[in-house]
Amino acid sequence: MSEPARADDAAAAVEAAIAGELRLLDPEVRRSPELAGALLHPDFHEFGASGRHWDRAAIIDMLATEAGTEAEAGAVPVSTSGMRGVQLSADVVHLTFDTEGDGRHVHRSSLWRRSDDEWLLYFHQGTPFTV
């Protein structure tokens, strides 16, 4: 009888991570240091598609600057495809997906970590690819 509960828990964990990931792609969230920061684990870090390593403070600053500039320029939001996730442990979900924006395609991988009762982005990596 406990098997369905585990499957339900895993599905809920993956859904929570996907919801967080999609919020982070929302231009309104990206341009708000408070909203973006609320989704990032205190120990967050990223290897960006540019090859740069980002820590939490640097990515929050970059997102706010980039999203503000894109909003002024009327940039088209990033689209996602192939998003899927797997719960690796009780407190870790791994997501993979692709994004496309302004003709740039990126494979993405994220680790979401449960901290207290909320899922926070702990690690992210983007790798550009051509179609």
Gyration radius, to the nearest Å? Answer: 15 Å
Give the CA-based shape. Answer: globular
The succession of helices and strands, N to C, reads HHHEEHEEEE
Structural class: alpha+beta
What profile does the largest beta sheet have? 6 strands, mixed
User: Architecture, according to CATH?
Assistant: Roll
Give the mean pLDDT: 90
Give the distance, in angstroms, between the N- and C-terminal Cα atoms.
Answer: 45 Å
Strand order within the widest sheet?
A: 2-1-6-5-4-3
State the low-pLDDT regions, or none: none
Task: Write up what this structure looks like.
- The protein is an alpha+beta fold and 131 residues long.
- It has a single domain (2-129), classed as Nuclear Transport Factor 2, Chain: A (Roll).
- 39% of the residues lie in helices and 43% in strands.
- The chain has four helices and six strands, in the order αααββαββββ.
- The chain has helices spanning 2-25, 27-30, 33-37, 56-73, and strands at residues 40-47, 53-55, 79-89, 92-101, 104-115, 118-129.
- The chain has a six-stranded mixed beta sheet with strand order 2-1-6-5-4-3.
- Strand 4 (92-101) and strand 5 form a beta hairpin.
- The longest helix has 24 residues, at 2-25.
